[in-house]
Amino acid sequence: MDLVSAGRIGAEGIEAFHCDHHRTKGEAVPYQAEYIWIDGTEPSPLVRSKTKILPDGKKPPIWGFDGSSTNQAEGSNSDCVLNPVFTCPDPLRGVNDILVMCEVLDVNGKPHSTNTRAKLETVAKKYASFEPWFGIEQEYTFIQNGRPYGWPENGYPAPQGPYYCGVGGDMMPGRDIVEAHTAACMAAGLAIEGTNAEVMMGQWEFQIGPLGPLEVSDQLWIARWLLFRIAEDFGVFATLEAKPMLGDWNGAGAHTNFSTKPMREAGGYSHIVAACEAIGKKVNEHIEHYGVGIELRLTGKHETAHYTQFSYGVSDRGASIRIPWQVAQDKKGYLEDRRPNANMDPYSVTRLMVDTVCTAASGSKGAPAKKSAAKKTTAKKAPVKKATAKKAVAKRPAKKAARRR
Ligand code: ADP
Ligand code: MN
Ligand code: MN
Ligand code: MN
Question: Do 196 and 164 contact (CB within 8 A), yes or no?
């Protein structure tokens, strides 16, 4: 068994490894920090990562990488900088190991042109007094041998119908990976809220939130990285492609649920409608950043509205924006923008939504006072399950993965 597999046996496994080979009792041990960042691959960026071994107690510092290998720099001037922005326990390695979400800077310390997080940070600060919250539903598809996981080698599975939230038989390929991924997200302290099987066989969903725009985006990228990494151990590839199978098969989206403080409070319904109207005035500007291949997915079929049209409505899964039934009932709450693709960049999507909605609402009746904007942070009031680094993690979730292989 190689080291990786050995590590995946569980926290106890890696501890035992340290004890046997490196360590006497009570001695400080180095730990592993997995630095994760978003690259410059076009048209859809990929997530990358590499490992840094750090002395016990040392915080993860700024680090670098070869930007010429990630479409982020020229070979002659290749250094890019990794600046840690969010850390959480690494559920796949030892109890002291961590995952480190990074933004990319150039060597002068300025945000790199691929750094969409920095742009969001500016907008999030500007509109902090609105206390925006997001919940993102991440759909994705497992692929093996170039076909959705579990699909017959030749031909197609039975048509869509039984797979959404289905159970039983051989209809639900990938469930063991989903279970391992969910447990990993929980052990990492991410605000994962739920999972479900999707309409197309081999397609699944998890939700992260509700959190402020920066927090939800950082955590979504970590959750994506965990998904890709865990699927590796099952010999399966998880893709965020928007329309992996053309024809009468559902695409993969990332419904983005959004609210501001005024929308969540009594009388919030008028603010929700105003938000829909504001978004409806910027259709192209939003769609442009809602993910590659959006015209293949937003066809007007398969629970989508056509990408050239804009509509909103209560309970309407054929609308661009759905106002959930319960929200219409309560007369306050949130809206669901159903258009973003599975492969969207949450830093860009949440930035556009906050910017469009809060700019339109600023100065209108019921807008939060600007004064408090500088003092408050978006995370404060959101029901954040804070993920702190070095927190003792629950039993390792990936045992199944190790056994299976
Ligand atoms: P559905 O599949 O019916 O569209 P899900 O249960 O998958 O809905 O997702 C609902 C999403 O709504 C979750 O991500 C949750 O965080 C989000 N959400 C709930 N309340 C709010 C709110 N007040 N503001 C923003 N997002 C919210
Ligand atoms: Mn959902
Ligand atoms: Mn869904
Ligand atoms: Mn949804």
Answer: yes
Q: Which atom of ligand 1 is nearest to the CA of 207?
A: 14
Q: What pLDDT, on the 0 to 100 scale, is given for residue 369?
A: 80
pTM of the model: 0.87
Expressed in angstroms and rounded, the spacing between residue 382 Cα and the centre of ligand 3 is 23
Ion ligand 2: residue ranges with CB closer than 5 A:
137
Pocket residues: Cβ below 6 A from ligand 1: 133-135, 137, 193, 207, 209-210, 255, 257-259, 264, 333-334, 336
CATH of 122-362, one of 3.40.1350.10, 3.40.190.10, 3.30.470.20, 3.30.590.10: 3.30.590.10
CATH H superfamily, domain 3-115+384-392 = Glutamine synthetase, N-terminal domain (3.10.20.70)
Interior CA angle at 232 toward 178 and 164, to 5°?
A: 30
Q: Measure 100 CA to ligand 1 centroid, in angstroms.
A: 26
pLDDT tens digits for range 338-377: 999 999 999 999 999 999 999 999 978 778 886 544 444 4
18 phi/psi in degrees, rounded to 5? -55, -50
Cα–Cα distance for residue pair 32/106, rounded to 1 Å? 24
Give the residue, by CA position, lying nearest to ligand 1 atom 8: 137
Tell me the per-residue pLDDT of 304-318, one tens digit each, with 9 for 90 and over: 999 999 999 999 999
Where along the chain do its domains lie? Answer: 3-115+384-392, 122-362
